[in-house]
Amino acid sequence: MALNTGLNDVELGIFQGSSSQLQDLTPRPKGPKGPKGIQHPQDVDIQQGEQQKEEEQVYVFITGFGPFAGIEVNPTQILVDGLREDDQFWTSIHGDNDKNTKKVVLEQCQVMKTCAKTVKAKLEQMHRDILTKLRNEQAVEEEHMIPRGNTRKRVVFVHFGVHSIGKRFFVEKQAHNEAHFGYPDESGWQPRFEKIDPRGTTPKATLRTTVPVKQLVDRLKAKNFDVVVSDDAGRYVCNWTYYNSMYLANSQGVAIRSLGSESQLDPIPVPDVTVQVLFVHVPTFETIPEAVQIHFVRELIK
To answer: Is the Cβ–Cβ distance between 196 and 240 less than 8 Å?
Structure first.
């Protein structure tokens, strides 16, 4: 779940005292001058105009699933509930160094019913709520002429699902435009070879995450986690969740339209906001113990 920094131009205050008196701009070495240790005015201006910090505000949404089809205790429910209650963790991942400051806000951390239609409704509401919130914040800034400076805003959705026969962690890089449930979801719905987006070209069409998956997996491997990049999130509710969430993320700033519906929601233009989505499959606790998985999800989010 990387920042660009840039130098702000330094305004040197060419005129000093009388408007007809030009300041001497001849380069001079920094440091004390004379017995009183007086610095050249240009040196003072340059020090005050050093590179300003870039601030990134990250708004995080975490989801998991409840029980379904033989999985009485879904590990993602336990992992997500744990993240919601871990205030110390969310405080610890704020970043601050000489170049940038990162502020992380946990917007929502919820367990969804393993029901495709319920998931779609919840995703649509979550995406819409955060974009509306950010749009309103920007409207207030513009009304009161509050400078944004070097602040960037990013929204990150991290969805967790269980791979009941998986032996490791799978970071999914794409979702397929196909709903083909091997067994019914918790509402009894069982689509067969249906397109998630009816306007899409074929069920083989995919949406890819903008999260740098390979770099993320390499970093987790370096911490000795058994994790791989996956290009197949299945065709059950996990893939359904990933495809719908990425569709909504790609639609932000234009219009959010519910897949499978002809109704068009109002556009929510939010400039300078990046929305990213990631899906991660975890194994059962019998395969990888709960303590290891708790550590994994925290390292992944960092």
So the answer is: yes
CB 280 within 8 A of CB 160: yes
* Phi, psi (deg, nearest 5) at residue 67: -65, 155
Beta carbons within 10 angstroms of residue 187's beta carbon? 12
- Residue holding tokens 């920042």? 3
* Predicted structure pTM score: 0.78
Burial classification of residue 167, based on how many CB atoms lie within 10 Å of its CB (0-12 exposed, 13-18 middle, 19 or more buried) = exposed
Q: For 208-233, how does the pLDDT look when each residue is reduced to its tens digit (9 = 90+)?
A: 999 999 999 999 999 999 999 999 99
Helix (H) or strand (E) holding 207: strand 206-208
Contacts of 119 (CB under 8 A, 6+ apart): 112, 113, 237, 240, 241, 244
Give the alpha-carbon dihedral of 244, 246, 251, 253, to 10 degrees. Answer: 130
User: Which single residue is written with the structure tokens 């998985």?
Assistant: 293
3-class secondary-structure state, position 102:
strand
- Mean pLDDT for all residues in the chain: 80
pLDDT higher than threshold 70 for residue 14: no
